[in-house]
Sequence to fold (116 residues):
Amino acid sequence: PIQPVTGLGELPAGLGSAGLRKAALDGDARAVYELASRAADGPVGTRDPKLALRLFERAAVAGLAPAQFRLGNMFEKGVGAPRDIALARIWYQRAAERGNAKAMHTLFGIEVPPHG
Fold:
């Protein structure tokens, strides 16, 4: 089960709608994930990788598999934080255990490096 999100801290006023921010602050992991996605994938001038990482992390800790996958991806690529393959594996593993097919595929790829 997905737990309520806690410890969000401040959310920028321009990130998502007031209703979406309220839902996130009320503990809705999917709302937190949506805000994190907007911070990560928004228009170039509005992207905030550190905020996205923090929000994905809160939703991931709550048990939301897509957030666990995105967090693993950010650690794998070094976006919003230094690159950390060990942390990437941990988050991909957690997402895979919750049935996230992308995480399963990616986890296999980073555990068995290509030869050549």
Q: What stands out?
A: Residues 11 and 21 are 7 Å apart (CA to CA).
